[in-house]
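Deliverable D2.4 — example input (structure tokens):
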């Protein structure tokens, strides 16, 4: 087992490489051989790994780190085909340089930059140079007002036909733009003409951002604290969906969006497709959503929000709220924020929670009669303003809030679709799901690709146990490596011979000691392989059906 950093308990940003995957992490579990992040325009320590990297993963833990540069991170990664978790887990609010970031990533067909914050970036030279597989780039999130260098930014992007930008795209500070579009599929950026709107169909309210707004049952978004255009339709809406297209839109308000949605039971895609970095108001956002039992705020950016008045008022089916991602440093109004959430028991917050600027908090917790703080502080009808809007410190510092959860264990929720490999094939985690358990016994499921996987080697026929690591926790799952050159169908199968037989899920082999044997099913899947230890070997096999025992050049069919 690799040793961890000598400064255990002190989180550190680092990069690990394993089986073609480069993973960015931020925790206190840095193993030997991991790479520290670069600074400024310096080369990255993992540059010798980029030629064999096929997948990049931004681990969930990395969202809590704030890098100052992304320069050279993937420069030369010609085999990279996917980048997982960048939109969710890379916070670029402090980044000033992105030069060469994706340079020579010639196999990368798409990059999700919907949450890539660029307001402080000054260098974008060579950022996408020679990304020859890109056909479209959506840079509508890019604020380039401070960028001074765009030299060769899109140079050599031979198949790039569309570069979408918004009114935040600016060349006012630009000093160097030589060869910006040299050998590119387009010679200019395109102003985005998409429109944000809401459409209602079959009881579902869907948020979209495109050029396809229909003429009926579609509504423009509101501004400020204005009522929404769809507020008369709540009697028919049971479900809310944030379409993938909506991730590229940045609303300035979420006020009243679901106010009165008493029949809403589910909200899908909000975590992935709602970008709230520009939102200043969430006034009455979920007010009256009395059937909504859970809301995912794992990627809800609150750093600019000033008004959270009545945000969850009358959400009587909520029993827990995880607000650990909330940064409330700019909030001035929390009046009636949780008012009449009668079944709410737990409110989880993180380090970003503060009420320092709050000057309106009347009835913030009124009628939250079941609310209990992390140390057991119970509801007090005389303490319903921001006084108890702190992490519970017990009798000496009572509060209604609970500190952010820690991960206590992980488990495989769903195996990857592919668990059998031919010799020489690469690991494929598609379909795999990881279940994460927190210290309050709640659970959440993520794509398995978010974790670090070790132990895979497809050079020889074998049964492998792969180790899964995530946020300091571990679990395992098994895969099988087969040899496609020796399929069972081509093995001459003899009639049963007395020295090899099966009974009660046990295969018996009578032969010389130290004789190698292999047991496979009729489809060629390896069951086990080993060497006999005596003249009579008994092998327990938990399998129903026909098996083939291979000893030397002979094969024996048995019914288990």
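Example output (designed residues):
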């Amino acid at each position: 087992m690799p040793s961890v950093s000598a400064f255990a308990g002190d989180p550190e940003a680092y990069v690990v490489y394993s089986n073609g995957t480069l993973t960015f992490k931020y925790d206190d579990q840095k193993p030997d051989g991991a790479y520290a992040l670069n600074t400024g325009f310096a080369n990255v320590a993992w540059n010798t790994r980029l030629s064999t990297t096929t997948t990049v993963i931004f681990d969930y833990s990395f969202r809590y780190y704030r890098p100052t540069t992304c320069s050279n991170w993937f420069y030369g990664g010609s085999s990279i085909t996917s980048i997982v978790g960048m939109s969710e887990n890379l916070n670029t609010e402090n980044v000033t340089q992105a030069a060469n970031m994706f340079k020579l990533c010639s196999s990368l067909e798409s990059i999700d930059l919907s949450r890539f914050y660029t307001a402080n970036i000054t260098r974008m030279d060579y950022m996408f140079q020679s990304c020859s597989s890109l056909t479209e780039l959506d840079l509508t999130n890019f604020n380039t007002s401070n960028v001074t260098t765009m030299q060769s930014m899109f140079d050599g992007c031979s198949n790039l036909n569309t570069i979408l930008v918004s009114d935040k795209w600016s060349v006012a500070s630009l000093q160097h733009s030589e060869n910006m579009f040299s050998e590119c599929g387009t010679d200019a950026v395109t102003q985005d003409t998409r429109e944000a709107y809401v459409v209602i169909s079959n009881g579902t309210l869907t948020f979209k951002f495109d050029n396809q707004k229909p003429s009926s049952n579609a509504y423009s978004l509101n501004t400020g604290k204005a009522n929404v255009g769809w507020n008369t339709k709540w009697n028919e809406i049971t479900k809310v969906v944030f379409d993938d297209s909506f991730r590229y839109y940045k609303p300035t308000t979420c006020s009243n969006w679901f106010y009165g949605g008493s029949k809403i039971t589910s909200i899908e895609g909000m975590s992935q497709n709602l970008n709230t970095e520009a939102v200043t108001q969430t006034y009455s956002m979920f007010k009256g959503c009395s059937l909504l039992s859970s809301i995912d705020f794992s990627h809800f950016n609150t750093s600019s929000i000033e008004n959270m008045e009545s945000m969850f008022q009358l959400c009587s089916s909520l029993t827990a709220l995880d607000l650990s991602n909330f940064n409330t440093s700019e909030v001035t109004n929390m009046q009636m924020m949780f008012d009449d959430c009668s079944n709410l028991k737990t409110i989880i917050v993180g380090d970003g929670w503060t009420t320092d600027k709050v000057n309106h908090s009347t009835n913030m917790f009124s009628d939250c009669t079941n609310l209990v703080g992390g140390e057991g502080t119970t509801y007090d009808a005389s303490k319903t303003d921001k006084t108890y809007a702190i992490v519970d410190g017990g009798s000496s510092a009572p509060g209604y809030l609970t500190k952010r959860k820690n991960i206590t264990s992980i488990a495989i929720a769903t195996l990857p679709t592919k668990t059998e490999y031919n010799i020489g094939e690469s690991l494929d985690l598609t379909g795999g799901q990881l279940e994460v358990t927190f210290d309050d016994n709640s659970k959440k499921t993520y794509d398995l690709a978010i974790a670090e996987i070790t132990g895979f080697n497809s050079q020889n026929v074998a049964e492998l146990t792969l180790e899964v690591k995530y946020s300091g926790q571990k679990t395992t799952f098994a895969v099988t490596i087969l040899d496609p050159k020796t399929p069972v169908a081509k093995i001459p199968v003899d009639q049963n011979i007395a020295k090899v037989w099966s009974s009660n899920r046990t295969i018996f082999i009578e032969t010389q000691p130290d004789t190698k044997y292999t047991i496979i099913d009729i489809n060629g899947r390896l069951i086990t392989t080993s060497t006999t230890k005596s003249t009579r070997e008994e092998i327990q096999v938990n399998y129903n059906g026909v098996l083939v025992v291979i000893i030397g050049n002979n094969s024996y069919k048995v019914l288990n």
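The first strand starts at residue 12 and ends at 18.
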